[in-house]
Design a protein that fits this description.
Blueprint (H helix, E strand, L loop, with lengths): L1 H32 L8 H15 L4 H13 L1 H4 L1 H8 L2 H6 L1 H42 L3
Length: about 140
């Protein structure tokens, strides 16, 4: 029993550390978002801080993977409060349904076109870059 209790405590402390890292980055991001003139939301700053820490190796992906997996697996629960709040605005949504629908469809189409064109451009550029590298390797001085 003592060994099981020790394992439970260790697992709890590991999860607390993982949550601490993620919510610490979110907290720092929220602080940055409070700076006047900052147009980027704090949650985005928090993700950028976490990404920076991961890319620098200050935080290992394996360290936060279990809690990330838990959050992703339970993501549906995070949509319940906004969904309930949305019910308060059904009358406004109903009266503005056509403009909302048009804006949604138009933005989807624009995003698809821009993403496709960007992919084509980057793919052709990397293909051209790869071909020029291959040519150079066969050049004789």
């Amino acid at each position: 029993m003592l060994k099981e209790d020790t394992l439970k405590i260790e697992n709890t402390l590991k999860m607390a550390k993982q949550f601490g890292i993620i919510f610490g980055c979110l907290f720092l991001g929220e602080l940055l978002g409070l700076i006047p003139g900052m147009a980027i939301p704090g949650s985005i700053w928090g993700m950028l801080i976490l990404t920076f820490m991961l890319s620098r190796g200050w935080v290992k992906a394996a360290t936060i993977k279990p809690v990330c997996r838990f959050l992703i697996d339970n993501m549906a629960f995070f949509f319940i409060p906004p969904g309930v709040a949305l019910m308060l605005y059904f009358d406004l949504i109903a009266s503005e349904f056509i403009p909302i629908l048009v804006a949604t469809v138009a933005s989807i189409i624009i995003v698809l076109i821009v993403t496709g064109r960007l992919h084509q451009y980057l793919h052709s550029r990397s293909k051209h870059h790869h071909q020029s590298k291959t040519k150079r390797s066969y050049d004789v001085d």
